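sry for the spam today, last one i promise. C-alpha cells for design, 335 residues
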C-alpha cells in the first residue's frame, strides 16, 4: 500500500521532506499541499505528478485522498493542525515543536488520549541518527555502567538575524533536551542556565550558554549552545558512567593527513549532519503507519516534556536561578 500524505507548510523543511518522500524513501506519495503562501504551495505542487493545492490546512486534513498529515508550518500553527488531524483520526507527523506552549501540548495529549490511540509523532530526528543510536546502545548495554553525567554540545557556525535570546533554548537546545531524555530513559527535573563571556561574532546575543540540568535519578546534564562558533556545525554527546565513557564520534568520514596536519570534515550545517537521520525517520514512520502496528517514534508526551523543559529553561535564563521542571502525570498511552 502507498501511504497518501498531505503536507502543510511548503517552506524550507516542508520542501525538503517532500523531496525526501518523493525521491528518497519508499511507500509514500504526496497528494496534497497547503501553505499560507499560496504561490509557494502551487510552485511545489507543480513539481509533483498528483498533488492538489488546498486553500487551508483544515481542507487538506479533510481531503479523503489524504491518509496521513505532515505539519511543517510555523510553530504557533502546529496545535490547530495536529488537533484537526486527531479529530479526523489521521496519523500526523508534526515537525518540532509539537506546539509552542505547554497548554497547547496538553490539549494535544488530552485529544490523543481521548482518541484511544497514538496518532502523533514529533520531528525529533536525532533519535534516528546512526551515531546517536550507537550511543544509546552503548548506554543500554551497560558497557559504561550506570550513567552519572551527560554532556551535550550544540554548535552552529552562525544564526540568522531574527535569532533571539530565547531561541537558544526553545529552538536549539530543545533537540538536546529531547535526546537526553531518550538516551537516559528518564525525565529532567531541574535546569539552570548561565551565560559565558559573549562570543563577539554574536553581537548583543548572550552566546554561548551553559545549562546544567538534573534527571530523576540524579544524573547531571550539561548542555552547551554555541551558535556563532564559525568553524562548523558540531554536535557532541558524551556519557560518563560508573565504569567508562561513550561519546559520539565523527563516524563514516575519511581522516585526511596532508600538509603537516590531520583532520576530518566538520559539517557545514544541520542538513549535512542529519540528512540520513531524516530519511530513516520518515521511512520508519511510513512503515509503521502503513503496518498499523502503532507508532514508536517521539510522541506527544515527548513533545510536551521538551516544551516544559524549554519553559523552565527560559525562566532560568532570565532569573539566573535553578528552576524546577514539573511534569503532569504521564498517561498510560505513552508508557
Ligand atoms: P519556513 O521556511 O518559514 O516555512 C514555514 C512555512 O509555513 C512558510 O511557507 C509559511 O508561510 C507557512 N505557514 C505559516 N503559517 C501557516 C499556516 N497557518 N498554514 C499553513 N502554512 C503556514 O520554516 P521552516 O524552517 O521550514 O520550519 C518549519 C517548521 O519546521 C518549524 O516548526 C521548525 O521549527 C521546524 N524545523 C525542524 C527542524 C528539525 O531539525 N527537526 C529543522 C528545520 C525546521 P509564510 O512564509 O507566508 O509565513
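last one done:
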Amino acid at each position: 500500500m502507498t501511504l497518501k500524505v498531505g503536507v502543510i507548510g511548503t517552506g524550507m523543511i516542508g520542501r525538503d521532506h517532500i523531496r525526501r518522500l518523493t525521491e528518497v524513501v519508499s511507500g509514500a506519495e504526496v497528494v496534497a499541499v497547503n501553505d499560507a503562501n499560496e504561490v509557494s504551495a502551487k510552485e511545489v505542487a507543480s513539481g509533483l505528478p498528483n498533488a492538489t493545492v488546498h486553500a487551508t490546512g483544515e481542507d487538506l486534513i479533510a481531503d479523503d485522498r489524504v491518509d496521513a498529515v505532515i505539519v511543517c508550518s510555523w510553530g504557533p500553527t502546529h496545535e490547530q493542525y495536529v488537533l484537526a488531524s486527531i479529530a479526523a483520526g489521521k496519523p500526523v507527523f508534526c515537525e518540532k515543536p509539537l506546539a509552542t506552549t505547554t497548554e497547547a501540548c496538553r490539549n494535544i495529549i488530552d485529544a490523543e488520549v481521548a482518541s484511544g490511540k497514538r496518532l502523533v509523532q514529533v520531528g525529533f530526528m536525532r533519535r534516528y541518527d546512526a551515531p546517536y543510536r550507537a550511543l544509546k546502545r552503548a548506554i543500554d548495554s551497560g558497557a559504561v555502567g550506570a550513567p552519572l553525567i551527560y554532556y551535550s554540545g550544540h554548535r552552529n557556525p552562525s544564526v540568522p538575524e531574527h535569532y533571539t535570546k530565547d531561541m537558544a533554548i526553545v529552538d536549539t537546545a530543545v533537540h538536546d533536551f529531547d535526546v537526553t531524555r531518550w538516551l537516559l530513559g528518564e525525565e529532567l527535573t531541574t535546569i539552570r542556565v548561565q551565560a559565558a563571556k559573549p562570543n563577539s561574532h554574536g553581537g548583543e546575543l548572550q552566546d554561548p550558554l551553559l545549562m546544567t540540568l538534573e534527571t530523576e535519578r540524579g544524573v547531571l546534564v550539561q548542555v552547551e549552545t554555541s551558535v556563532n562558533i564559525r568553524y562548523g556545525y558540531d554536535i557532541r554527546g558524551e556519557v560518563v558512567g560508573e565504569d567508562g565513557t561513550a561519546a559520539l564520534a565523527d563516524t563514516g568520514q575519511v581522516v585526511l593527513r596532508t600538509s603537516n596536519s590531520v583532520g576530518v570534515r566538520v559539517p557545514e550545517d544541520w542538513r549535512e549532519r542529519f540528512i540520513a537521520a531524516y530519511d530513516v525517520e520518515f521511512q520508519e514512520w511510513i512503515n509503521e503507519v502503513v503496518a498499523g502496528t502503532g507508532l514508536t517514534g517521539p510522541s506527544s508526551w515527548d513533545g510536551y516534556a521538551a516544551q516544559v523543559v524549554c519553559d523552565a529553561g527560559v525562566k532560568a535564563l532570565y532569573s539566573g536561578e535553578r528552576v524546577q521542571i514539573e511534569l503532569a502525570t504521564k498517561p498510560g498511552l505513552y508508557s
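The chain has nine helices and 15 strands. ok im logging off now
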